[in-house]
Amino acid sequence: MSVREPLVFQGIPGIRSPIDRRNLRIDDVGIKGVRYPLTVKSGGKPSSTVVTLALTVGLSASENGTHMSRFIELLEAQTAALDPAGFKGMEFDVLDRLNAKNQCN
């Protein structure tokens, strides 16, 4: 039995590598319909639930794209019960991690 050599793709550029000179922004990129268990705080009491989320950001023309896995990493990092302020903090965290904007101008 012979051992297969790993496939090596030489000369194939990465998708994010080339500079896009079209100067196009992306108004809405992300993942929708994400079902995820979270603990939310309502009326001061924590409650476990499953939420369905649309996790999207806008990207300026200088960004080539985004890593969708960062959205899930952000959810997995949540250990405390989330109240409205916690959800807002998550929004700022994802914008920072993805070098994104909630609105592209």
* Proportion of residues in extended strands: 25-35%
Strand order of the largest sheet: 1-2
Helix count equals 2
User: What is the helix/strand order?
Assistant: EEHH
Estimate the helix proportion, in percent.
Answer: 10-25%
The largest β sheet comes out as: 2 strands, antiparallel
Mean of pLDDT: 79
Oligomer status: single chain
Description:
Helices cover 21% and strands 30% of the residues. The chain has helices at residues 69-76, 84-97, and strands spanning 26-42, 45-59. Helix 1 (69-76) packs antiparallel against helix 2 (84-97). The mean pLDDT is 79. The chain contains 2 helices and 2 strands.
In summary, what is this structure?
The protein has 105 residues and is of the alpha+beta class.
Blueprint of the fold:
Elements: E1 26-42, E2 45-59, H1 69-76, H2 84-97
Antiparallel strand pairs: 1-2
Features:
alpha+beta; 105 residues; 2 helices; two-stranded antiparallel sheet; 30% strand; elongated
